[in-house]
Amino acid sequence: MSVAKKEFKKVTTHVLLEMKRKGEKISMLTAYDYTMAKIVDGAGIDVILVGDSASNVMAGHETTLPITLDQMIYHASSVIRAVDRALVVVDLPFGSYQGNSKEALNSAIRIMKESGAHSVKLEGGREIRESIARILTAGIPVMGHLGLTPQSIYKFGTYTVRAKEEDEAERLVEDAKLLEESGCFAIVLEKIPASLATRVAKEVSIPVIGIGAGGGVDGQVLVVHDMLGLTTEFSPRFLRRYANLHETITTAVAGYISDVKSKDFPSSNEQY
User: Fold this and answer.
1) 13-241 carries CATH number 3.20.20.60
2) Above pLDDT 70, what percent of the chain?
3) Distance between CA 72 and CA 198 in Å, rounded?
4) Residue 259: Cβ within 10 Å count
5) 3-state secondary structure 197-234
6) Known catalytic residues?
7) Range(s) for CATH 3.20.20.60 in the chain?
8) Over the stretch 189-239, which tens digit does the pLDDT of each residue have?
9) How far apart are CA 30 and CA 164, in angstroms?
10) Residue 64: what are its φ and ψ, rounded to 5°?
């Protein structure tokens, strides 16, 4: 007897908007390679972010700034080949869109054409409005990102919570509304007070995804390496580890080394 293939609904920007309207939370994780993306998508994640955090967790850089557009396209292409259901969002890396809307459009077009991705994400508010508008003219969906913006780390000088003061909080609310008016389909809010994030989610009609922004937003995003416990040195308050793969992998590798050294591997059943 044949088994019917499981039906699933492809996630689009429209689906995310409907989820917000219905009060259904949106799940989002990063992925940077085929194997991880295949697992994450198969588990039912709504959105996969090919984040410039690849600069940290894949390449070992201290910040997100060094990763290039070519490298982001490589990671995005690997992820796209694995995905059947999730909406794939790709970060425009530092230097590929700030201060030059024509370059921003060219960068976004390259990502979409060369990787097959579904959308792009930019950090910032009013200062990148022209870049967002120009990208949208090409029919490319844009996700915004406010609050702690890692590409601006040397401007802020710290990864501390943003928008705690009233002036900065009001500016963030204004920028969120500006991003909505500009045509962004969603906004990521990173490391801001929960009450402020809740306010933003209520005052804009597009989905608001939080990371370190409390539970009053429309969805959550984490870096998959952090969530799975592959990384151990990064432990912010907002991070919940759902596994300890660092320990699991270390134990497995140590067992393999031991078996090779003792000539236990391969056994007679593991050879031709």
Assistant:
1) yes
2) 94
3) 31
4) 13
5) HHHHHHHCCCCEEEECCCCCCCEEEECHHHHCCCCCCC
6) 190
7) 13-241
8) 999 999 999 999 999 999 999 999 999 999 999 999 999 999 998 899 999
9) 27
10) -85, -5
Q: What is the Cα–Cα distance from 71 to 50, expressed in whole angstroms?
A: 11
End-to-end CA distance of the chain: 35
Q: How far apart are CA 26 and CA 89, in angstroms?
A: 14
Q: What mean pLDDT, rounded, does the chain reach?
A: 94
Q: From its phi and psi, is residue 157 left (phi > 0), alpha (psi between -120 and 50) or beta?
A: left
Residue type, 23: G
- For the whole model, what pTM was predicted? 0.93
Q: How confident is the model at residue 149 (pLDDT cuts 50, 70, 90)?
A: confident
> What tokens does 54 get?
């690849």
Could you give the angle at which helices 69-80 and 101-115 cross, rounded to 10 degrees?
Answer: 30
For residues 138 and 126, the answer to whether their CB atoms sit within 8 Å is: no
Query: Nearest CA to 188 among 248, 123, 140?
Result: 123
Output the six-digit token pair for 15: 């689906």
Is 29 in a helix, a strand, or coil?
strand
Q: What is the Cα Rg of the chain in Å?
A: 20
Residue among 26, 21, 14, 22 at smallest CA distance from 215 = 26
In sequence order, the 6+-apart residues with CB closer than 8 A to the CB of 25 are 19, 218, 219, 220
Q: What is the pLDDT of residue 5?
A: 43
The mean per-residue pLDDT over the stretch 11-33 comes to 98
Rounded distance between C-alpha atoms, residue 119 and residue 117, angstroms:
6
Whole-angstrom distance, CA of residue 266 vs CA of residue 272: 11
